[in-house]
Design goal:
The protein is 47% helix and 17% strand. α2 packs across α4, α2 packs across α12 and α7 packs parallel to α8. By secondary structure, it is an alpha/beta fold. The chain has an eight-stranded parallel beta barrel with strand order 1-2-3-4-5-8-9-10, surrounded by ten helices. It has one domain: TIM Barrel. The structure holds 1,3-dihydroxyacetonephosphate. 1,3-dihydroxyacetonephosphate binds next to β3, β10 and α10.
Length: 287
């Protein structure tokens, strides 16, 4: 059974570790992440962007697949199915479709409109036992057509949004989706410290987990980050392993073209990446 992310993130905050949100794209991704979480006895959050939801034919398909897979693989660690960077309409659709956690990203609205929409959605989500993540200040880079400028969130706005009864808060601290550019200045820990002080202990979310050095991850966790989102890194691992298989001509040997063989190295590569992140985030044996 899927659970909301509220309890697992409160436990993470109190235990000074972070739970990984790993974005899914298809069956292989979902299976790789669920099996790794179970093997490592770690809680896990499966992230679904609106683009990935469309790709998988809709949020209902995703919820049905994840629910069935948790059951048929005998997964017993806590699993949340979470909408990543949801629009107002997308959030409502996922609440209906059976997601157990929602991110409403109102960071591109005025703070007043972000407050109004977040307030409405938090009530709706909580009436169904679903957790809600909100965002203040856009995060840099591009993900599924959503472009942010790498802003730093204003602690006063963070205080305002976190006071709306939301369960966890994403706040820009110089983090960017996708690969970090050579000249990236790193996470802004002064900003994170101020946000942490202004938000009354609410679990904080770090987006753009791909490529953030281990020491910065650890420092972020020490300043209240309890959820870290990783997407691109699994895509890069999958692509590299698939490339190696094809370049070695393995698809041309025997039944190497069988998708169950062709996708196997990429599947194993996702598992290895998720394992590495869970170990770094400290969520192993925290189920
Ligand atoms: P990356 O793709 O940079 O890992 O970011 C993932 C993310 O923040 C999803 O919301």
């Amino acid at each position: 059974m899927l659970v909301s992310a509220t309890e697992m993130l409160k436990k993470a905050r109190d235990g000074h570790y972070a739970v990984g949100q790993f974005n899914i794209n298809n069956l292989e991704w979902t299976k790789a992440i669920l099996l790794t979480a179970q093997e490592l006895n770690s809680p896990v959050i499966l992230g679904v962007s609106e683009g990935a939801g469309k790709y998988m034919t809709g949020f209902k398909t995703v919820a049905a697949m994840v629910n069935a897979m948790v059951d048929s693989l005998g997964i017993t660690v806590p699993v949340a199915l979470h909408l990543d960077h949801g629009s107002y309409e997308g959030a409502k659709a996922c609440i209906e479709a059976g997601f157990s956690s929602i991110m409403f990203d109102g960071s591109h609205y005025s703070i007043e409109e972000n407050v109004a929409k977040t307030t409405e959605l938090v009530e709706l989500a909580h009436s169904k036992g679903i957790s809600l993540e909100a965002e203040v200040g856009s995060i840099g880079g591009e993900e599924d057509g959503v472009v942010g400028a790498g802003e730093i969130a204003d602690p006063a706005e963070c205080a305002k949004i976190s006071g709306l009864g939301i369960d966890f808060l994403a706040a820009g601290i110089g983090n960017i989706h996708g690969k970090y550019p050579e000249n990236w200045k790193g996470l802004d820990f002064e900003a994170l410290g101020k946000i942490h002080d202004a938000t009354n202990g609410i679990p904080l979310v770090l987006h753009g987990g791909t490529g953030i050095p281990a020491d910065m991850i650890k420092q972020a966790i020490s300043l209240g980050v309890s959820k870290i989102n990783v997407n691109t890194e699994c895509q890069l691992s999958f692509a590299a392993a698939t490339r190696e298989y094809i370049e070695a001509g393995k698809d041309l040997q025997g039944k190497g073209f069988d998708p169950r063989k062709l996708l196997a190295p990429g599947f194993e590569a996702i598992k290895a990446t998720v394992k590495e992140k869970m170990e770094l985030f400290g969520s192993v044996n925290k189920a």
